[in-house]
Amino acid sequence: MSEEIIRLSAAELSGALASGELSSVEATQAHLDRIADVDADVHAYLHVSERAVEVAADIDRRRVSGEKLSELAGVPLAIKDVLVTTDMPSTSGSRILEGFMSPYDATVVARARAAGLVPLGKTNMDEFAMGSSTEHSAYGPTHNPWDLDRIPGGSGGGSAAAVAAFEAPVALGSDTGGSIRQPAHVTGTVGLKPTYGGVSRYGAIALASSLDQVGPVSRTVLDSALLHDVIGGHDPHDSTSLEYAWPSFAAAARDGARGDILKGLRVGVISELPDSGFQAGVSASFRASLDLLAAHGAEIVDVSAPHFEYGVAAYYLILPAEASSNLAKFDSVRFGLRVDVPGGTVEDVMAATRDAGFGDEVKRRIILGTYALSAGYYDAYYGSAQKVRTLIQRDFDTAFASVDVIATPTAPTTAFRLGEVEDPLQMYLNDVATIPANLAGVPGISLPSGLSADDGLPVGIQFLAPAREDARLYSVAAALEALLVDSWGGPILDRAPILGGRA
């Protein structure tokens, strides 16, 4: 029975819970058992909740009493460790916050609790969300359930791996340059980065405040939409939060699954995105998806985005600059790690603490960002990067004047082996297709498009839409998902040799 439960989508679990066929305690315990069985191999979780069954039992009591509950009430949830929680440690994958207990919940966590979702635990991540492989966690790497010798993507590899390994039906992630979408690409899952300001960042440990966005991770487009409906909307605690009447994303996904939206849909393909830089199997899967869309009425249109090629360079000036400012709060004085230096000054203690508490990638980006903001270099580096950002935003505006969505491969390659990529620049280039959406603040979604013929590993296709058109993404993604799943004869994860066949 547990094996059947963990294979259910969040929408299917919701239906079983509402009908009384299944209790939240049963669903929660099944996922806790799965974590106990496989997470020593996957290492998706940094902390597993001790209260999950208690919370689930309370949901069951409320349901039995006749209380009207939300659609996802009783469904288990994994939470990326970048989001603070009152009942579990919040470390952002860093030693400098080891054991830190927050006095408040992140807004998205509070909303998930209010909707009756059951937190299972906190998931692993690259330290302070700096990475594309979850190899930079201070607590050890997460492994891809498709092949335990490979990376699960980053920075949110823990959330994606937990969902792919059936250790959670849905998860919360954050996306600063692709940290939801790129892990989805390499694990055969679904991930959406919302419009900037569409989901509250209050309680998300900041990396780059003009780029960070919280979003959903799942195995189906509908499940992401259902979770997005819970966590989205205006939050007065977040000064960047949009005051906007968002439509139902779940309704958009359900409408899209019928496929009518594809007739006459104009899908843009960026002519400047270098096909030569993508693995052959990734490009082939992408082209096959475009052909499938065209066969069902979509029009594939070449669009120009001449400044996308500068996106990675601009991003890796803007992000480190903002990170160097945001991480200045970790000073050994107010909270977190403190390394005492006998007879030393406050500056000595601060330096020793940061040296011990921050990993190499974090130090690299802090140094780069501090340099880019320094006197005499601000205009040449940070200022110039912001100008490129504006040009990329204009590229999007021009493209969306002629197409409904833009499609790209989500990332250039399938999951590479742990330890295989040592050059930081090569690692950064993994986000070449995802970074522009963060620079422009537009929404993007990745869903599985197939398996690469090169190595049999998952490949994702990314759709981008104009700001505030997240619902359009859910409709288009759900339409393609329905076609793909039908052609495969079932979900892509049914074809995965997950953990040697252990289900």
Automatic annotation (TrEMBL):
Gene3D superfamilies (alphabetical): Amidase signature (AS) domain
PROSITE patterns in the record: AMIDASES (PS00571)
Superkingdom of the organism of origin: Bacteria
Residues covered by the Amidase domain: 26-473
Keywords, in A-Z order: ATP-binding, Ligase, Nucleotide-binding, Protein biosynthesis
Reaction equations catalysed: L-glutamyl-tRNA(Gln) + L-glutamine + ATP + H2O = L-glutaminyl-tRNA(Gln) + L-glutamate + ADP + phosphate + H(+)
InterPro entries (UniProt xref): Amidase (IPR000120), Amidase_CS (IPR020556), Amidase_dom (IPR023631), AS_sf (IPR036928), GatA (IPR004412)
Keyword Transmembrane helix listed: no
Active-site annotation: 80 (charge relay system), 155 (charge relay system), 179 (acyl-ester intermediate)
E.C. numbers: 6.3.5.7
Stated role: Allows the formation of correctly charged Gln-tRNA(Gln) through the transamidation of misacylated Glu-tRNA(Gln) in organisms which lack glutaminyl-tRNA synthetase. The reaction takes place in the presence of glutamine and ATP through an activated gamma-phospho-Glu-tRNA(Gln).
Subunit structure: Heterotrimer of A, B and C subunits.
Matches recorded under NCBIfam families: gatA
Family indicated by similarity: Belongs to the amidase family. GatA subfamily.
Protein name listed in UniProt: Glutamyl-tRNA(Gln) amidotransferase subunit A
Organism: Microbacterium sediminicola
